[in-house]
Amino acid sequence: MSAGPLHTLPEDIFRTVFEKSPGSLLVKADAPRFTILAASDTYLAVTATTRDAILGRGFSEVFPENATIDDNIKAQHIFKKVVETGRKIDIPSYRYDMFDPDTYTYEEHHWSCSNVPIIGTDGKIAYILNTVVDITKEVKAREEAIEIANRLRLANEATGLATWDLDLVDQTFEYSPRMAEIFGHNADEVLSLAAFRSQITADDMDNIIKPSFRQAILTGEYLYEVKITCPDTSVRWIKTQGVIIFDASHKPIRMLGTVLDITESKRDEIRKNDFIAMASHELKTPLTSLKAYIQLLEKKITKGGDPFINNALVKAGNQVNKMADLVYGFLDLSRLESGKLQVKIQPFDINELITEIITETLLVSYHHQIVFNPGKTIIINADRERIGQVVSNFLSNAIKYSPKESTITVSSGVFDNNVQVSVSDTGIGIRYKDQEKLFQRFYRVENENIKTISGFGIGLYLASEIIQRHKGKIWVESKEGQGSTFSFSLPL
User: Fold this and answer.
1) Residues near 60 by Cβ (< 8 Å), separated by ≥ 6?
2) How many whole angstroms separate alpha carbon 491 and alpha carbon 402?
């Protein structure tokens, strides 16, 4: 089978194709001039020039060498090397600033170029195809990323933070040198995720880390504090915080986080708790005696019938009760944070308990009306004293933050195999931004209306911890100026 006739294409077609090619310049190999013979539209666009301005002129005339460029990557040197070696030479990245005629200033630009030799009919290098790409945006983005990484590194070093990155798909684990130091190893020591985890107690792994991970799958946020045992057998406390990254189908694929050594702050906290516990124990005995003396005086004075003294003793008794509640609250706080707060589970009727708490509350707070319709008996398995403490706290807060003579409503019921108890008032209400922090230790809402109301912000924190130890839930619903409803639920 014979080949068909060859068609000779017009020279203009080659010029047209070349001019439409990406970022190309055809240079004649007539060193040292290197005359520009053709330029593509893209090349003219990225270099902000025209064909009339560059065709027929030497390359260095059009693009003068920048004194800041390394001699080894200057155009003259590269072109000569291409002619001498007959090989393609690439320059991945170099800087060549372009003159802006509008501002009469040079603008920073970064380029990547390729120089391909083209052989003539005599077998020698006749032309060089110079192709350039403006990579200024990529270089700037890379420099910015490096700058951000350096700032983050400096910030981490200043704060003592360690960083880690866990791929949840293939379990690849990366960490900063600081993390190895926190765990008691040399900064350059290579450790696996299993090695880090082996320094955490089994109890903390089961009771803190695993539940935190399950919670993070729902919320996307990861936070816990645990003890670790270092290779030298010393014990440290660490705080781990991070986020979970999900794919398009909401499947967790990656975890990013930080680790902070909080040993010193934990020791300070333990010393503070020890002091609170000691002071509370020391205060409890004289308060008990004072309360007993006041009760004896009330009985004796009542026979005399002096209204002023009777009233003064009642008020004194109320103040002693408030002080006792505060002391017992601090005692419970110290027990809770030292892990000694015991929960004694027993069956009891929660409606009966609520009725008792309301009766006790009305003995000292008779300026409010408390409405409760107990309904049928609801038997639950829980710590009667601790649950009573939660109900009492709800009622106490409702009385504190609602106007005198207003009505407080208590309700109970069974919903989805859980008993739910709610206390509603028509008081000042709580701003939305404060609601999620109410159950934090020592948190007090900043509000001009409550500056004169006493409290240390431990009641709701203790209530929350008590309910959580019963595997229940606690929450608040409120609108500022319209009142609040505090609720908790416990599994039946």
Assistant:
1) 32, 34, 75, 76
2) 30
Taking each helix axis from N to C end, the angle separating 307-337 and 459-469, rounded to the nearest 10 degrees, works out to 50
- Length of the chain as a residue count: 492
Task: Return the higher-pLDDT residue of 489 and 66.
Answer: 489
Digit-coded pLDDT (tens) for 378-403: 999 998 888 998 998 899 888 888 88
CATH node for 160-261: 3.30.450.20
Q: How far apart are the first and last CA of the chain?
A: 92
Give pTM, 2 decimals: 0.45
Where are the domain boundaries for CATH 3.30.565.10 in the chain?
346-491
Does CATH place domain 266-337 in 1.10.287?
yes
> What pairing do the DSSP bridges indicate for beta strands 98-100 and 89-95?
unpaired
- The CATH number of the structural domain formed by 11-140 is 3.30.450.20
Q: What is the dihedral of CA 474, 479, 484, 486, to 10 degrees?
A: -10
Q: What distance separates the 2 farthest-apart alpha carbons in the chain?
A: 139
CATH number given to 346-491: 3.30.565.10
Torsion angle defined by CA atoms of residues 46, 51, 53 and 59, in that order, rounded to the nearest 10 degrees: 70
**Residue 485 confidence (pLDDT):** 93
**Residue 38, strand partner residues:** 26
Before 32, cis peptide (omega within 30)? Answer: yes
